[in-house]
Amino acid sequence: MYLENVIADSPELHTGEWSAICIGIFEDKELSERQNQYNSQVEGKITALLAQDDFKGESGQTELIYLGEGAPIRRILLIGLGKRDKFTLDNAREAAGNAVRAAQSRRINDFAVEVFGEDVLDESVAEIVQGITEGLILGSYQFTEYRTKDTEKYFVSKKAGILTDSDVENAIQKGKALAKATAFVRDVALHPSNVMTPSRLSEEAEQIAKIGGFKYRVYDRDEFEQMGMGAFSGVAKGAEEPPKFIVLEYYGGENGDPPVAFVGKGITFDTGGISIKPSKSMHEMKFDMCGAGAVLGIMHAIAELKPPMNIIGIVAATENMPGGKAYKPGDILKAYNGKTIEVLNTDAEGRLALADALAYAEKEFSPKYMVNFATLTGAAIVALGHRASAVMGNNEDLIKDIIAAGEYTGERCWQLPLWDDYSSDLKSEVADVANIGNQGAGTITAGAFLKEFVGETKWAHLDIAGTAWWSEDRPYIPKGASGVGVRLMLRWLDQETT
Fold first, then answer.
1. pLDDT tens per residue, range 181-236
2. CATH no. for residue 323?
3. Is 83 a catalytic residue?
């Protein structure tokens, strides 16, 4: 659940009936012209509090001034913005996240916020308002689906306003669409694997298709085996839960324009298969479908925003389980593009599922670009932690554009090399390629493996193992599933259409 009602409202303090307004204060504590007006209307209480030096304006700091029922506004929430010269658009999102969390912790049902950083950011008011809308909704998010005790402690504000005289309705609506799609990805990832099965993923995809008017297809085990998807079929052999190969097609561009294809790894639970994982933290392996979640979330946003281009979403969804029928180390699988793969480790299963999905997208749709998402390697966390997704591919311009979109959205990416040398680490004595490398660089060799299945299409691989799932709270991203990918890719698509 999350805050859904975000509107624009007049910045005049005496208008509206907000229970609180949130004012952003930098560390230098210099008030804007508007803030000085607010301060006068509340008889200097803002400057009086700042003079006490308890509130320093540091990023993440909040302080409540209670003014009472007879005042122009009952409460003012001061929101620390940090250093003025370091403030970014993502800091505005974070300030909005801090504001909504401060309001909800005080059980404030409705509140309004300033356009944080309007006087210092280079971005337009509309861009800042879109970011603040995202921060308000995403910062309010709570996953309570399975809570049956103490449910009254989970509180979500009902309404938020953004105080501006500018025409920002479109910006608010876009921010809502992106935030809601991101919240959808979080929900999908947080459901347990006995609920969020491949069949449930296909149902979610079908619902998105109905809303967006997309073409929708799902292939069952027998169908994608007959189609020649030997790599994906191999991973799925040990799963009693029916696997699904899901295809969504959106045509908002000109007839014949090559589409953009998004491809997601959808391992709804990963035991490691025969190469079984250690038991510690295995319960978290329900999140191994966050790549699929990202693709469905992207299509969720596209269903509402309807960009003027053709877009394909593909998800290969299965469990990776041990069992009498499970694939084994030493097996050789034949992928959709005809290449043979020696399986050296069944816990390197996501790349096998993606191999067929990428080859299918390349052959069937001849896309202009392909971008895949996967929680692919623990090595990505070793290399980059949780602050950035690893990105690599076969086209520098595409990678640079994705990195730029990441800086804008706060969903940062960092390029790793994909030199031809790394492909030599995947040599097999008995097949065209092995599914793991033998010289370290696990994230890169996984990308080198995927490169074998994209043909000449311009392609980027994002390893989101570190960014899809967090163990700590951030201002607008709660502990657990982050929903990474939606805002990043919609920004990239915006760049492609301008």
1. 999 999 999 999 999 999 999 999 999 999 999 999 999 999 999 999 999 999 99
2. 3.40.630.10
3. no
The reported pLDDT for the residue numbered 439 is 82
Determine which one of 180, 351, 451, 491 is catalytic: 351
Task: Looking at the structure, tell me whether residues 133 and 225 fall in a common domain.
Answer: no
Domains in the chain, number: 2
Kindly tell me if the per-residue pLDDT of 249 is higher than 90.
yes
Say which of 217, 277, 368, 474 is annotated catalytic: 277
Biggest alpha carbon–alpha carbon distance for the chain: 82
Residue 470: pLDDT band (50, 70, 90) is: confident
Same domain as 344, residue 224: yes
Indicate if 194 and 116 belong to the same structural domain.
no
Cβ–Cβ under 8 Å, residues 72 and 53: no
Mean pLDDT of 324-353: 98
| 277 is known as an active-site residue | yes
Structural domain of 86: 5-165
Residue 172 lies in a domain: no
Q: What pLDDT is recorded for position 15? A: 58
- Is residue 65 domain-shared with residue 116, that is, in the same domain? yes
In a domain, 173, yes or no: no
